[in-house]
């Protein structure tokens, strides 16, 4: 073996080492960490996350995705640590399971120079994320409240079913109350239905026993609306009142499309917001489009006229 | 001397029985009086039917739980199992519509699927506890997670819904009844009466109590320990199936959030009713009272809205503890 060959070999080795490095400059890995599909809304969120990942992988061959779903905050932290350690991610899209326990792990990821997109639930320290994408909780209550204020007359009676006692629920209810203030609508009662069909059914049965005159129900969630409608049906008081749910479950949207008089409208709180977050993050990586900042997805009113554009028959939610 | 001990011995059990019996009954009567004074609709036909019918699911399960606990076991998986059985039942009925059409055969097939699924699920718990010899707390904690996530998986994270036409046909099983008494209430009453009979008069009840009190003694007394233990779990599984048969027509759907915490409500009802958590003594009618106490608390809190709804859980907790304390005082008094 003479010297020239030795050099050639070294050059070949260098070239080998250089090629993947070059390729790595152009390809990116995006980690997506979301809660697992334990109920309808998260089911929809998982569906939209997977759908947008498939779409983006087809459009941008240089993008790689790591999707991890977690049943609790601890598992989510582990998932994120694994993504950084073993997949060397360039960007992280995370829907924090809980704000507090996820804050410092996500901060650590950020400090390693990874782009961070936070979805729906904020972290407890501001300024960690590059991009924040969320639904509009006060808007969710306000849009519903405005519909009640416009449609009902002074002295009409309503009952309200609330979700699981959380900040999110408080924001929605406060905005709803603000929107109906001064309209003369009586809120007879508010109880927690915990975003659960069975609980909402029981609470509504009791409301119906307690009050002889109810003109409308703000069920504030479509799962609760299903239970409420069944209780009203059982009492045979269908003619008397209408129900507004929320979040846009496909079965409810279908009934709005058919013009069901008991379900006049719905308010969106789209599980597809995860798709917005993933798409924007990808766009920021593959192009020079600026995507940092806050992106609040407005809560829209779904009416029989526009219901079709909110109907996703393939989504589980 | 002999005379005095004899009379004392006679007096003791009588007094204990009366205190023991009065505890949960007293709490129930107090709740009914409270409810009636707070709202005039409380004792109305509609409200009484609502409360009894919604008690039926937990009630039917709690009767089975009474036997499991009396025999010294515990089952944490019943809530998840109910969700799983409901999911399987809905999928089976939807799949059978093309071949059976919508009618009585479809509903009967659905009921059979629910009972068999429940029985198999319960038997599996029983097998692992009785034959493999694993702690029941661990076995059922494991199966609790398994059934819950199987349901979520079957539903693809969403909700499993029964075909609309099939549901309309099946609906009367929850909402209609005989002579104005809803079906779930009738079924609950039958299960409770049969359970009370089995606990008091049948050998099975005595075997459960013997097994729960002292396994070695039961074994030497020719009780087939493994078989009795396995039967309690299988029976509970079948009763979960029966409860599901009543549950599915109510909302026609099942999801990962169906039956959450039912296991704890059922266990609480059993203990409120006077059954001993560590086994050896069980009282089925006490369980029925325990179930009624739990659902009346919810009902009264909704009807009265006297306190912040944030405190509902705290009030429930206080009443549950008080109901049990009443019994304890009765016991220590003798």
From TrEMBL, chain A:
The keyword Repeat does not apply. CDD domains: PBP1_ABC_sugar_binding-like. It is found in: Cell envelope. One of its GO terms (molecular function) is carbohydrate binding. Its main location: other. Residues 30-276 form the Periplasmic binding protein domain. Pfam families: Peripla_BP_4. Gene3D superfamilies: 3.40.50.2300. Keywords: Signal. The keyword Cell wall biogenesis/degradation does not apply. Residues 1-23 form the signal peptide. GO terms for cellular component: cell envelope. InterPro entries: Peripla_BP_I, SBP_2_dom. Belongs to the bacterial solute-binding protein 2 family. This is ABC transporter substrate-binding protein. It comes from Roseivivax isoporae LMG 25204.
From TrEMBL, chain B:
The keyword Membrane applies. The keyword Membrane applies. It is found in: Cell membrane. InterPro entries: ABC_transp_permease (IPR001851). It comes from Roseivivax isoporae LMG 25204. GO terms for molecular function: transmembrane transporter activity. This is ABC transporter permease. Its main location: membrane. The chain crosses the membrane at residues 21-39, 51-74, 81-100, 106-130, 137-155, 175-197, 230-248, 260-277, 307-326. It is a multi-pass membrane protein. GO terms for cellular component: plasma membrane. Keywords: Cell membrane, Membrane, Transmembrane, Transmembrane helix.
């Amino acid at each position: 073996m003479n010297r020239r060959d030795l050099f050639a070999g070294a050059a070949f080795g260098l070239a080998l080492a250089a090629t993947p490095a070059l390729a790595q400059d152009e390809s990116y890995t995006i980690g997506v960490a979301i809660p697992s599909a334990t109920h309808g809304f998260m089911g929809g969120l998982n569906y939209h996350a997977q759908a947008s990942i498939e779409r983006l992988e087809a459009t941008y061959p240089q993008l790689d995705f790591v999707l991890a779903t977690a049943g609790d905050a601890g598992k989510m932290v582990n998932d994120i640590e694994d993504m950084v350690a073993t997949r060397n991610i360039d960007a992280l899209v995370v829907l924090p399971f809980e704000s507090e326990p996820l804050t410092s792990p996500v901060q650590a990821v950020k400090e390693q120079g990874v782009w961070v997109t936070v979805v729906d639930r904020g972290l407890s320290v501001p300024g960690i994320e590059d991009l924040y994408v969320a639904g509009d909780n006060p808007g969710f209550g306000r849009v519903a409240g405005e519909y009640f204020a416009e449609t009902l007359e002074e002295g009409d009676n309503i009952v309200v079913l609330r979700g699981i006692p959380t900040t999110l629920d408080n924001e929605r209810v406060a905005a709803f109350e603000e929107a109906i203030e001064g309209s003369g609508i009586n809120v007879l009662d508010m109880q927690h239905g915990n975003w659960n069909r069975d609980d909402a059914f029981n609470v509504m049965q009791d409301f119906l026993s307690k009050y002889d005159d109810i003109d409308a129900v703000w069920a504030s969630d479509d799962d609760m609306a299903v239970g409420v409608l069944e209780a009203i049906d059982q009492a045979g008081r269908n003619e008397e009142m209408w129900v507004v749910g929320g979040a846009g479950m496909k079965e409810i949207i279908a009934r709005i499309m058919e013009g069901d008089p008991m379900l006049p409208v719905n308010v969106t709180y789209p599980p597809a917001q995860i798709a917005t977050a993933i798409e924007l993050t990808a766009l920021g990586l593959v192009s020079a489009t600026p995507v940092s900042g806050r992106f609040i997805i407005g809560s829209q009113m779904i009416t029989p006229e526009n219901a079709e554009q909110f109907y996703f028959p393939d989504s589980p939610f | 001397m002999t005379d005095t001990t004899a009379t004392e011995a006679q007096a003791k059990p009588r007094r204990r029985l009366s205190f023991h019996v009065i505890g949960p009954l007293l709490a129930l009567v107090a709740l009914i009086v409270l409810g009636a004074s707070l709202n005039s609709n409380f004792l109305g036909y509609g409200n009484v039917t609502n409360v009894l019918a919604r008690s039926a699911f937990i009630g039917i399960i709690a009767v089975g739980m009474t036997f499991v606990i009396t025999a010294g076991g515990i089952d944490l998986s019943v809530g998840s199992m109910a969700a799983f059985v409901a999911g399987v039942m809905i999928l089976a009925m939807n799949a059978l519509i093309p071949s059976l059409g919508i009618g009585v055969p479809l509903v009967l097939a659905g009921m059979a699927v629910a009972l068999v699924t429940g029985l198999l699920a319960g038997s599996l718990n029983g097998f692992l506890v009785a034959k493999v010899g694993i702690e029941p707390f661990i076995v059922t904690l494991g199966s609790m997670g398994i059934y819950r996530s199987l349901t979520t998986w079957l539903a693809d994270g969403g909700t499993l819904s029964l075909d609309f036409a099939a549901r309309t046909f099946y609906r009367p099983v929850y909402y209609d009844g005989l002579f104005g008494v809803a079906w779930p209430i009738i079924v609950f009453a039958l299960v409770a009466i049969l359970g009370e009979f089995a606990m008091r008069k049948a050998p099975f009840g005595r075997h459960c109590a013997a097994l729960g009190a002292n396994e070695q003694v039961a074994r030497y007394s020719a009780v087939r320990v493994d078989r009795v233990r396995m039967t309690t779990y299988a029976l509970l599984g079948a009763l979960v199936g029966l409860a599901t048969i009543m549950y599915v027509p109510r909302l026609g759907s099942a999801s990962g959030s169906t039956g959450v915490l039912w296991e704890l409500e059922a266990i609480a009802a059993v203990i409120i009713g006077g059954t001993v958590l560590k086994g050896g003594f069980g009282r089925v009618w006490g369980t029925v009272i325990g179930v009624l106490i739990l659902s009346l608390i919810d009902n009264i809190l909704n009807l009265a809205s006297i306190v912040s709804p944030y405190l509902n859980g705290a009030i429930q907790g206080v009443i549950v503890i008080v109901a049990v304390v009443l019994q304890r005082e009765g016991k220590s008094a003798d």
